[in-house]
Fold this protein.
Amino acid sequence: MDPRIAVVPGSFDPPTLGHLDVIRRAAGLFDQLHVLVVHNPGKEAMLPIAERLRLLERSIAEADVEGDVIVAAWSMGLLVDYATDVGAKVLVKGIRSQVDVAYETPMAIVNRDLAHVETVFLLPDPSHALVSSSLVRQVAGLGGDVSPYVPPAVARFLDTGARGF
Ligand code: PNS
């Protein structure tokens, strides 16, 4: 049987505890998981892509996520092109609310039409239901404590910059 490969795409600007929860759940469901940092032109970025990759790698390692997890970035075109290149037939998205369902559904349909890539929605732990990268960006930008919402590596980074990370 072919290995079951999935992609968890997102901006991850920065990675949150909600992201990590979805990554852990997805890693347990698939043989190989690609966590893919994708530039979203609709959002003004806080962190460079390279920094998001480092933070994701560190956060996943420190959380002892089990499974074959690859962290990568993609800016060369359609997300489904990356999925097809690595043999992934599934995209995984975390769903916090009906708002997320409304946002994700058109993308899921288009990705299926484009390349027969299905989207699986996973529910994170309800304790992460209100956490979003945009909220973290806002609180961090105003000097607030974001440690309840992000993995320790991200909290250290946002607290100290690259120093101590
Ligand atoms: O974390 P985000 O910002 O909600 O992630 C959105 C993202 C990056 C997954 C989405 O913008 C995306 O899939 N971009 C890839 C571009 C693409 O393939 N678009 C066409 C089909 S939707």
